[in-house]
Amino acid sequence: MRLSQRLLGGFLLIILVLVALVVTSVERRVRERLLQQAAAGLLREARLVAMTTTDATNPDSIADILAATLGHRVTLVAGDGRVLGDSEFDDAALAQMENHRTRPEVVSAGLNDTGTAVRRSASAGDVEVYAAVRDGDGVARVSLAFATQSLVEAQLRRDIFSAAALAAVAALVLALLFSRSVTRPILELRDDARAIAGGDLRRRPSLSAPGEVGELASAFHRLAEQLTARVEALEADDALLRAVSDALNEGVVALDSRQQVQQINEGARRLLQVRDALPFSADQLPRDRALREALADAMAGRSVDGVETRLGERVVTITARPLTGGGAVLALFDITPIRRLETVRRDFVANVSHELKTPLTVVSGFAETLQDESVSTDQRRQFLRTILNNTQRMHRLVDDLLDLSRIESGGWRPAPTLIDLGAVASETLSSFSEVAGQKGIELKVEIDPEATTARMDPTAIRQVLTNLVHNAIRHTARGAVTIFTEKSADQVTVGVRDTGSGIAAEHLPRVFERFYRVDASRSRAEGGTGLGLAIVKHLVEAHGGAVTAESVVGTGTTFRVTLPA
Ligand code: ADP
């Protein structure tokens, strides 16, 4: 039931009780007073009757006359109680009338000069109001039918009731207004409280009521302020935590006891490939066995440490912990790069071993043969040349490996100076002029006037150009090998172009990998280590530059080294 209705109900009850009390008590008093007044009026009339009837010769007719004048019944009683005259009865009836000596009002008048009574009339049969006065020996009595009196009272009662009804209606209207005015601020506060509880933290009670309700409103205002401050602090904490967890490379997933994902960071979304909005069911997570088992164990209260599994392309270790109060946290660590590095290292060791194995076998085979005394001097010389060639090849390989490892490990740092590109290009080509001349290959330099210099380590640029030109000459049968420069925006490019065999598109992206060769046996036969382009790439990248290759099979290849100007 609403407050205003309860208030109104209370008021209604009070009004009804009050009206009922007032009406009954007023009605009773007014009736008594009316009766008293009627009795007093009758008494005055009785006195008049007594004065008028002294020594009357025909008392009954006098009684009739007086009654007609007064409008009330008049009775004259002798000292012995006989009725001498009565306005209601004629002479014949008078003789039949009962002796009135014992009538209460007559008895009282005999004793105290006056007497009144309300009682049923023995002679007239109705209830009457009597007033009697002593008249010499006898008694003069005036009476009034109570029915007449009741008529007046009924009229009066109607008046009282209608006044009471009017008062009750007026009181009810006032009570309604009052209950409204009392409940309105409370209802306002209730609406404000509901709005705040519903998340509208900006809402404040606009109320400025006096008294307790006003105090309640201002207390509520303070409460809302504190609540807002706390919520904002919590939200800030939450945002910070989220930012931190999103910044982590590791994936973190928190689930509640009903297997609903409540928190998930960007790392975990990436690894698990889930984009659903929070919260979502654990069923949305990948159907990976290790993941499911780790989750089930943590849900059952058991910790799981570093279980390795494969999620799509990624290798991940999963750690799971149960949460106090139900639920679990999963931590996912992406170990793909570690596993990839391990593979690279394994491949590298295998490659190096493989590269060294062939020349070592040759060297040890020929050395063994040389132990034989019967080998001719010519053969001996030829064997020694082969041994020397293979040791030189191993030497080159070890040199290249050492270079590469120095650059990769950061042990070597470039010391860039301003390089005259034309001079370095000519110098590099001059060391190949003999080989090129034998193959009939033209060596050219094309310097763009806009790009004559570059900032680079002098040793590094020489090694880069040497490696590129060496490759170009090896893979070119006729035509030309050109060192050229280009200028673009804020970059300087140094390149080597040839008119050789070219590299097929499927090999092109991989030629910078260590030991990657398009034709391994040919490369080895020509003394290649498979490390030349890897060294170029690392040297250029150490300068903040990049190297690219373009090629058309049968037409030629162009390598471009681009450096920041
Ligand atoms: P290698 O010691 O075998 O030359 P590199 O790393 O220098 O090793 O080169 C890798 C591979 O790239 C070579 O084996 C060769 O197949 C290819 N290559 C490099 N330069 C050229 C070029 N100018 N023309 C055609 N193929 C080339």
What does this molecule look like?
The chain folds into four domains: 3-152, PAS domain (Beta-Lactamase); 248-334, PAS domain (Beta-Lactamase, 2-Layer Sandwich); 339-407, Orthogonal Bundle (Helix Hairpins), CATH 1.10.287; 413-564, 2-Layer Sandwich (Heat Shock Protein 90). The protein contains 15 helices and 18 strands. It has helices spanning 3-52, 59-70, 91-96, 104-112, 146-197, 211-247, 266-272, 289-299, 336-370, 377-409, 421-430, 433-439, 458-474, 520-525, 532-542, and strands at residues 73-77, 83-86, 114-120, 127-135, 138-145, 251-255, 260-264, 280-281, 304-311, 314-322, 328-334, 417-420, 441-446, 453-456, 479-488, 491-498, 546-552, 556-564. The strands form four sheets. The protein has a six-stranded antiparallel beta sheet with strand order 8-7-6-11-10-9, with helices on both faces. Strands 2-1-5-4-3 form a five-stranded antiparallel beta sheet. Strands 13-15-16-18-17 form a five-stranded mixed beta sheet. The longest helix is centred in the N-terminal third of the chain and has 52 residues, at 146-197. It is rod-shaped, with a radius of gyration of 65 Å. Adenosine-5'-diphosphate (ADP) binds at residues 471-472, 475, 498, 500-501, 503, 511, 516-519, 523, 528-534, 557. Adenosine-5'-diphosphate is lined by residues 471-472, 475, 498, 500-501, 503, 511, 516-519, 523, 528-534, 557.
